[in-house]
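Ops channel
N.P.: pipeline sanity check, posting one input/output pair.
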């Protein structure tokens, strides 16, 4: 079978070599390729050729190595009840591997045609403190970038280096577009980048603050990691091999704050002035449910989210979380309908075409918990409302980061705070009270307020005690019998 490439692709709507580079994207993983690149591909197909994307990997060369031999074309496979459909995306004009040549990436970000630098580098890529949103100045990559500002390693470091160069060359700054699931993502990234710039020089700090736009976005598309089974199925369906296709759902949504001083593509997104209600709805409902389900599901031996939804008791816990505990904390976004969003979400979670592993979602919990569960918990505590389901989610995370599953087998916990969490868990042993206290004391996650709140710590301890004594499945089954 032939490999996908410009030569073998059957009908490309535009020739990739004829498009300009208008966007540099840092973190060119599956999510970006299935989401923003798809929106941008539609604009390019529509005839506006200014917005080709130069991708960059901050760590490994894998994506570049997979896509270069196929002219950076790749397949997007979308599934819903009607089955799976494949299309070719040609918006990507190249992939740079930052550690191989940091200067080449800075040069790409300094192209006069580049108006936007967009980001999907996961929560931990911003080197910030998840509880406060401030730059973590002790982060090894930040320490490195302060000492070597022209050969950065971190995302904030690359943004600052490129903005500094553009300023020196008399070029206007690009707009920084964060597409990660951070709370107030635009504002958070602005704060982190402005702080690092200021640590470089007062003048650069002021320049970033005064001239660079950081519009916030809400991104909503489920994109599990691609597997070899996906590669084989997609090749069979398209007749071409593709080393790194992306697999996703038919659903796709993007809400963007419309603040692009240098212009932007006419994406088919929803442009708004206030992102907050959209962000809360999505982070608390979709991601909050995802994280809670992934810890419980993993512990109960469920491999994917679709498998979790097959377990009626687990599905009913998730529905309770969404309807009873999360919904009252949301503001209704203009033009949106929270009820139908939830119904659609429960259907999306059940999509058997998506093998979205609980282990994948369980990753980096320390960076995810604050915006997915803890903000909701704070709002509920202020309102004097019950937090039983939310506390269960936090307790399941605690049980998970002990690193040992219910059969006594090791869990491959991936988290930037893994060693600290594990050391605290080891010292506490299987005593729910001690473990809850030890983990709640991680200020970077829980701040100072939550550990001091007796309602919260009691609820988490009780849930953790149940997880230790009865196991994950019995815990959510008990929850269903007491909350339906
Ligand atoms: C997931 C998200 O991996 C995770 O933590 O919750 O990647 C989720 O699929 C996306 O935010 C959906 O837009």
């Amino acid at each position: 079978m032939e490999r996908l490439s410009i030569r073998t692709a059957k009908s490309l709507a535009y020739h990739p070599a004829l498009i300009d580079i208008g966007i540099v994207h840092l973190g060119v993983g599956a999510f970006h390729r299935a989401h923003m690149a798809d929106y941008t591909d539609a604009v390019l197909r529509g005839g506006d050729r200014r917005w080709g994307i130069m991708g960059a990997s901050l760590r490994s060369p894998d994506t570049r190595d997979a896509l270069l031999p196929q002219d950076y074309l790749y397949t997007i496979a979308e599934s819903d009840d009607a089955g799976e459909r494949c299309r070719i995306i040609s918006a990507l004009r190249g992939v740079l591997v930052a550690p191989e040549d940091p200067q080449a990436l800075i040069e790409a970000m300094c192209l006069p045609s580049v108006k936007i630098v967009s980001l999907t580098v996961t929560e931990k890529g911003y080197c910030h403190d998840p509880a406060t949103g401030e730059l973590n100045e002790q982060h090894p990559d930040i320490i490195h970038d302060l000492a070597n500002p022209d050969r950065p390693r971190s995302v904030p470091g690359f943004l600052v280096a490129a903005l500094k160069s553009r300023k020196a060359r008399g070029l206007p700054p690009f707009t920084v577009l964060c597409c990660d699931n951070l709370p107030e993502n635009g504002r958070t990234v602005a704060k982190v980048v402005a702080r690092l710039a200021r640590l470089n020089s007062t003048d650069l700090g002021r320049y970033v603050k005064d001239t660079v736009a950081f519009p916030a976005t809400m991104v909503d598309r489920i994109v599990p990691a691609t597997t070899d089974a996906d590669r084989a199925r997609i090749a069979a369906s398209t007749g071409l091999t593709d080393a790194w296709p992306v697999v996703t759902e038919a659903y796709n949504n993007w809400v963007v704050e419309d603040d692009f001083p240098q212009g932007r593509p006419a994406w088919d997104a929803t442009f708004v002035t206030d992102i907050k209600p959209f962000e809360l709805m999505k982070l608390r409902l979709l991601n909050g449910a995802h994280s809670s389900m992934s810890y419980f599901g993993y512990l109960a031996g469920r491999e994917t989210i679709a498998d979790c939804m097959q377990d009626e008791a687990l599905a009913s816990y998730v529905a309770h979380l969404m309807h009873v505990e999360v919904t009252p904390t949301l503001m209704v976004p203009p033009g949106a309908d929270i009820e139908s969003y939830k119904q659609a979400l429960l259907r999306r979670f059940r999509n058997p075409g998506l093998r979205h592993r609980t282990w994948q979602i369980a990753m980096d919990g320390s960076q995810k918990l604050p915006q997915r569960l803890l903000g909701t918990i704070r709002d509920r505590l202020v309102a004097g409302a019950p937090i039983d389901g939310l506390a269960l989610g936090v307790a399941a995370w605690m049980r998970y980061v002990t690193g040992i599953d219910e059969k006594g087998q090791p869990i491959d916990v991936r988290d930037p705070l893994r060693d600290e969490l594990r050391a605290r868990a080891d010292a506490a042993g299987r005593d729910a009270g001690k473990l809850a206290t030890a983990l709640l004391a991680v200020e970077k996650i829980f701040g100072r307020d939550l550990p001091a709140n007796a309602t919260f710590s009691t609820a988490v301890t009780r849930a953790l005690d149940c997880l230790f004594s009865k196991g994950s499945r019995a815990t959510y089954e008990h929850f269903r019998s007491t909350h339906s």
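N.P.: looks fine end to end. Residues 276-483 form a domain with the N-(1-d-carboxylethyl)-l-norvaline Dehydrogenase; domain 2 fold (CATH 1.10.1040.10).
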